[in-house]
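User: I've been trying to design a sequence by hand for this structure and keep getting stuck. Would you show me what you'd pick, starting by listing the structure so we're on the same page?

Assistant: Good idea, let's start from the same input. This is the structure you sent:
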């Protein structure tokens, strides 16, 4: 199962359009949006015609239908999704890790920092960065993850720009 991961799109649907134009996104069966903002997750679900698991970020309006955390079982893995601000991720991912492990997750996804992270281990911790307002590079980023039962997740960070001229200058990086 191929899963897409993004966060912190902050209303930039042009960046979502550009992401969906990337060939890596064609066969994604499920998306995770780690918050900021939920309407973007709804836009993505409509444009990709795929379910998007979403959580509330600190920039999202309170909505009883949107939780702070979601837990989803996919292809033999348990994924914990949260924006991260309620776990203080700007300082440490310790509290986030504890909560994910308490849920029995082997993969934790968060956002909020706009800085991408891939930390493998018994608990794989992932932050896709921001597709709209990156703080770790000039260009935004998202992730694709291949999940198979009893296999560690295979994760790739993809950097791209919504501006085709910038992509042709730098190429689309796979990290
Ligand atoms: Mn945030």
């Amino acid at each position: 199962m191929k899963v897409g991961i993004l966060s912190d799109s902050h209303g930039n649907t042009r960046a979502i359009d550009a992401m969906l134009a990337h060939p890596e996104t064609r066969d994604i069966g499920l998306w995770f949006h780690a918050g900021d903002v939920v309407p973007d997750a709804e836009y993505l679900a409509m444009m990709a015609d795929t379910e998007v698991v979403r959580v509330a970020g600190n920039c999202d309006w309170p909505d009883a239908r949107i939780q702070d955390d979601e837990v989803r079982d996919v292809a033999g893995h348990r994924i914990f999704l949260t924006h991260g601000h309620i776990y203080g991720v700007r300082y440490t991912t310790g509290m986030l890790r504890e909560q994910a492990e308490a849920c029995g997750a082997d993969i934790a996804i968060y956002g909020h920092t706009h800085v991408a992270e891939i930390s493998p281990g018994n608990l794989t911790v992932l932050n896709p960065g921001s597709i709209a307002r990156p703080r770790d590079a000039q260009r935004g980023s998202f992730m694709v993850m291949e999940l198979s039962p009893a296999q560690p997740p295979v994760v790739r960070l993809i950097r791209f720009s919504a501006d085709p001229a910038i992509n042709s200058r730098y190429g689309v990086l796979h990290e």
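That's my pick for every position. To get oriented when you compare it with your attempt: Residues 2-174 form a domain with the Purple Acid Phosphatase; chain A, domain 2 fold (CATH 3.60.21.10). Helices lie at 13-21, 38-48, 94-102, 164-170.
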